[in-house]
Every structure is written in C-alpha cells, then in structure tokens.
Amino acid sequence: MRKVVAALFISLDGVVQSPDQWQFDHFDEDMGTAMGAALAAQDAVLLGRVTYQEWAPYWPTATDEPFASYINATPKYVASTTLKTVTWQNSTLLTGDLASAIGRLQQQPGKNIGVAGSPTLVRSLLQAGLLDALTLMVHPVVVGRGRRLFQDGDALLRLQLTEAKTTRTGVLLATYQRRAGA
What we know:
The chain has helices spanning about 30-40, 50-55, 65-75, 100-105, 120-125; strands at about 5-10, 40-50, 75-80, 90-95, 110-115, 135-140, 160-165, 170-180. It is an alpha/beta fold and about 180 residues long. It has a single domain (about 5-180), classed as 3-Layer(aba) Sandwich (Dihydrofolate Reductase, subunit A), CATH 3.40.430.10.
C-alpha cells in the first residue's frame, strides 16, 4: 500500500508560511539531496486548496528546475470542499470524504503520495491518522509571525522520530510517524 508523506519547511517558532521569505539562505546541497530523494520516492502529489491556488498559476510556466518539471508532470490530487474544478494539467479534485479518497489513492499501484506545502491539510491528515510520515525541515531562524503548523487547541498527538540529519547550514531534517498505540 502506498504511503502518504509530507515535508514542510518550518522555523524554530513553528512558522510554515512563506518559507521563500526566510529559508533560502539555509538551502544547501544536503537539503537538495534529501529533497531529491523524497521526490524520487513519490509519484503523486496531494495539495490543499490554498497551495493549489497559489501554485497553479505559477508552476506551469516556471523554470525553477528540477521542481518545475516534476510538479507539472506528476499527478496532483487537490483536497478541497470549496473548489468546483481544477484546471492545472494532471490535476484531479478529490470530492467526498477525504479519508475514503486517500484510501482509494493508497490502493492504487505506485510510489509514495507526497503532500506538497499545504500545512492546513498536513495538520488535518495528522489528526485523522492519514499521514504515514512527516518530515520537518527545521530552519535555525525565528520568523516571529505567520501561520504555524500547529495551533492552540489542536488535539494531543504523539509522534516517534524515525530519522534525523543536520545539514551543513544547520537545518534539522527530522522525520516522524505516529507513535504506535498513540
């Protein structure tokens, strides 16, 4: 069965919003290698509505390689209760119950299904037990403001660290999964 995996750039104070404003001076060869390996291990992308609406106008004409070729060619599944259609090439709108839709995707042959961006979707997948692995790329920066991955009032969630590496620029690449029995 395919796994649903997510990776997010995150600051020390938990901010995931607008990483393009604070993470590039820490993006090094180590991070590029790790991200390349993650992309090679997946052949489908799951997006939330906000990320889809931000990315759909940009990536079809972008030249930021190798990600532009990857994201445009890869099947994309958009989780939204408000969108009626999606028009970006290789995009499919998931309708109905999200857990059922993801279950159907997991039953299809293929590699991992990667969640791109979409912190609200990542949070809901974690809470629903639908995310198999979460990699946080923790940058040594305090952003001070912006949307955070976790919010006050989120339910208690116990995770287990399965892998950790530090890049040359001090970014911690930490991968977690739900703790068994939690």
